[in-house]
Amino acid sequence: MNDELIPPQTLESGGGITISRFDPRHGPAVLQLILAIQQEEFDIPITAKEQPDLQDIPSFYQTGTGDFWVAEARNRVVGTIGLKDIGNDSVALRKMFVAQGWRGPSVRVAATLLDQALIHARRMQLKNIYLGTTDKFVAAHRFYEKNGFVLIEPHALPPTFPLMAVDTRFYALRLA
To answer: Domains plus CATH for the chain?
Structure first.
């Protein structure tokens, strides 16, 4: 069931990196990581106030078939990923962010976060994962496509998909 605590998993190639289910103690670090990447690295003019999901992650993500995980290294949050239950055996993948120094195939933080989300989605017997992203996240586009996500038009999103004003590209993954 969704309420079970998922034990931390040490990444094989990450040297001391753990993936664990979000706990409210992670809240400030999650907010700091995401805002820094959005605002400073990619110059996206979005504030914490415009992202109310980050103010109460448990009630937004950790309900129904959704959940939220963090990657930590040296007691610091270096990555996040969330699945938002949107009904009809589907979830929205949101808030997938990895700190700049922890990106790439040699570290595998993003891949391991996505693996955790996919394991969860299959355990919940979900059929579809949808996501929205911005044109600025070109490396993320390649990552999603490499992992089986297909670019879709906005009109192909389910009506329950939580649109964000900054999202301009949309992807879907059909689970077997």
So the answer is: 9-126 (3.40.630.30)
